[in-house]
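Q: I'm writing a short explainer about Hopanoid-associated MlaC-like outer-membrane-phospholipid-binding lipoprotein for a general audience and would like to include a description of its predicted shape. Could you first generate the structure from this sequence?
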Amino acid sequence: MYGISLSYSQPLLRPLKLIAGVLCLSVLVACARPDPALTMSGPYDPNEATNRKFHRFNKALDRNLVRPAGKGYVDILPDDIETAVGRFAFNLSIPSAVVNNILQGNMKGAIQDTSRFVVNSTIGLGGLFDPATELNMPAGTDADFGQTLYVWGVPEGPYIELPILGPATHRRAVGKVVDIFTNPITYVLEKPLNYISTATALAARLGERGRYSNTVDQILYESADGYAQAQSLYYQNRRFKLGSKSNDAYIDPYDDLASDPYEALNDE
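A: Of course. Here's the predicted structure. Afterward I'll give you a sentence or two in plain language.
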């Protein structure tokens, strides 16, 4: 029978290996501090040639798989069901945000996220509905480990385009990996229920890709340089989310789309 499991059968070495991996990756990111002189005129992108190759791969994947799947998703599913899937996926991501708020010392955010998770998981039937918003509870913080590293003072490092996941910096790339393995939902639910979070998140991203298809297409396929456009929008949105005080941190017209033009493929 599938359900909640509090079993301690998992090897103790797993969390130790994870902690060691996080520390090693964090050190690597910290060592990748860019020379300020190199970033005065634009993003720090020393591996642009390789990044552009991955960008072409991601565009091909989007054109042949993600884009048509996203359009089919929004065309087939009723709006109410699509919205419910998105809510459910976000609700399952909240425990990870709680962990990151605690790591950042943001106890207010951790309490707010925990309260929202409890209300929506019970009254809201696992997050399919959003009674927390109807009760005027604060919105979720959407904290991630990349943000945690930022709070800890780790520099963002060079720009990188990840296969499938899209734009990131070295700091954010580390955060993506850690977030995958540190969501408590993954360890509380038995298999295969522990994969629900990933599956619903992917479904929600397909929905976003379908809903914002015209805007994403303009960025990737209709701009003079889709790579540079995606990179610029990524930096604007990410630095705005982090509350950066730099001149690069401003709200761009695509902010309502999501956190970046590849949001249909990842979470940044």
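A: For your explainer, you could say: The longest strand covers residues 159-162.
Q: Perfect, that's easy to follow.
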